[in-house]
Give the backbone structure.
Amino acid sequence: MVKKKVLILGGDGYLGWPTAMYFSRKGHDVAVVDNFIKRQWEAEVEAEPLIPIPSLQQRIRIWKQATGKKIRMYVGNLAHERFVARIFRDFKPDVIIHYGEQPSAPFSMMGNERTNETQINNVVGTLNVIYSMKRSTPEAHLIKLGTMGEYGTPNIDIEEGWITITHKGRKDRMLFPKKPGSFYHLSKVHDSNNLEFACRVWGLRVTDLNQGVVYGMETEETKLADGLHTSFHYDDIFGTALNRFCVQAVAGVPITPYGKGGQKRGFLNIVDTLRCVELAALHPAKKGEFRVFNQFTEVFSIRELAEKVKSAAADMGIRAKIRHVRNPRTELEQHYYNPVHRALPKLGLKPHLLSDVLVESMLAKIIEHKDLINEEIIMPRVLWVSKTE
Amino acid sequence: MVKKKVLILGGDGYLGWPTAMYFSRKGHDVAVVDNFIKRQWEAEVEAEPLIPIPSLQQRIRIWKQATGKKIRMYVGNLAHERFVARIFRDFKPDVIIHYGEQPSAPFSMMGNERTNETQINNVVGTLNVIYSMKRSTPEAHLIKLGTMGEYGTPNIDIEEGWITITHKGRKDRMLFPKKPGSFYHLSKVHDSNNLEFACRVWGLRVTDLNQGVVYGMETEETKLADGLHTSFHYDDIFGTALNRFCVQAVAGVPITPYGKGGQKRGFLNIVDTLRCVELAALHPAKKGEFRVFNQFTEVFSIRELAEKVKSAAADMGIRAKIRHVRNPRTELEQHYYNPVHRALPKLGLKPHLLSDVLVESMLAKIIEHKDLINEEIIMPRVLWVSKTE
């Protein structure tokens, strides 16, 4: 494979760090960017990962010791134009993988300030990236992490970003209309709209990955040395349903799906995320192309997920209970859901599906660190509609 | 008519000030908000209005003298959460008319900083408004100025904000997909998406007015006293095509449509803008309704507009020439364009169409102030695709 310069924005995060190791191990020249604001947000809302994470500097050092490979680091804020411009002038990436955004729906719904913070951070960061690409690396390929949540749950099949609409006897290929469920999801919709424009007008190359919910704690690379693990969140703000349910089972408290649990979502294993991003990088978007992939491998309802955890736990001798709680979000709990996801399998993706074995390995890992579980951060603290604002 | 508390955001602007006088004259309790940043931007890019505009304080004083009516004023930045929250707590508006945004496509395309400034100012201002509504005036009606430019020029008929899509045998009513032509237009798309969410989740009432290009220098109220006139921009940044063409005719320089001039747009007279906003206010959106009106009365191509000015000028003894110049924007110059605009006429709008008489009255007004014309600010300075940025 041709060696590429790969710039990873948000390189300290749950996906950013494993992605950095993955590309580094394959021999690419990797640089990571982060300002560690996510760690600060975690501290502010009391949502630390189950197993403490060494600093990024330390992780890069451990990686070098374990593999002999160097990862470069830029520390700073993507919302600062000149910082971003400097990275692009200096590193001149061939591929940019952009995870550098505030990633939580509940965080974005905590109030006026958090909403603004989320939308400014995400939208302005991405604007600075495309301006820097235009200026310094107009042929580079931006791989931008979006989310399946941008689409919401429409009553028609969800296509991959674009849809051909026939209306009153005429036809056009248009962006798929979106109906997202939080100000965080909206920030990603804004990004997508800005990016489509940048491709159309400036001729940039962009792949927008509308990703499902990622699960899994390990990749080939996290296992290479102690301290290379990635963050595992099980709280109500940064944790996702499967993580929360596993921790609840281990902690001996009820598994708590929100509402009826009939909400369906796309899911994928973290090792598939890495492969999807790699496939996108190996097959870049064409000049001026705004390409969208729906990146997930399976659809489950939240109730099904709870049942899976309960049954895997039972196999390990843990008797877990399921208790439905009032849904803090405003969302449909019974709905049609049939999103297309053909592009990535066509490029070669071989999915790692969610097996009992995987859930059991997550449970086993959590059991190892059972004493670190903080039960108080699991139940929902942020309401989509509240009286107090 | 029931007397209402009307809050006008951007009350110092081309439309904001005439709207304030219009509602004040009808007996409503009017408050205006502005931080005069638009005047600063005008100074920064050398784009002052043809006829100087007294300060907002002075205009409010003149209005009081002329009519006995008081207009309240709040000075501050809509992007500051606490400033906006304070206004809503203090004034408790029934209707909010939101013009308080950076209104220029070329300004938003001047570079990275201007793009960020435009999107932050517009998106965060609107977020602060909806949070303040939710907190202090959940039953109030927000009338938000959007633009027809949000839609771009799709190959299908443009519906009013929503479209029912039939796809693979299923159906849903969805937001009309948009393909805007600048980062300014994108900021309004972001607003629309945020607003739809706020209606859906918080039950707010919002009318999004996707307005065409407004022309005209006078309303019933601007004539009531000296100093009550509104701003007339003819420069490349804040001026619109009709204004530029009229000034070019008077200045004796060629009228310069961009490119082929086959670009079609919706237009309306400023007096119709006032009536449209009033009709929206009189017939508020329902609780939880995100309502979109396409607000224009006629469609012209830019070439037709140039011809109209040339012919009206000829009637006044002015021989104007038309010279097509290279289009600084990236846009289709020949395209299908058939936007629906039924909602406002159904509520009672009686359009004032663009007549020779109107163009001649604009020309006459410009001739009065001919010595103030600065020819150097008319030709395009901002390119959508340039080599230097």
Notes: Chain A touches chain B through 54 residues (CB under 8 Å). The domain at 5-377 of chain A is CATH 3.40.50.720 (Rossmann fold). The two ends of chain A are 53 Å apart (CA to CA). The longest helix of chain A spans residues 112-136.
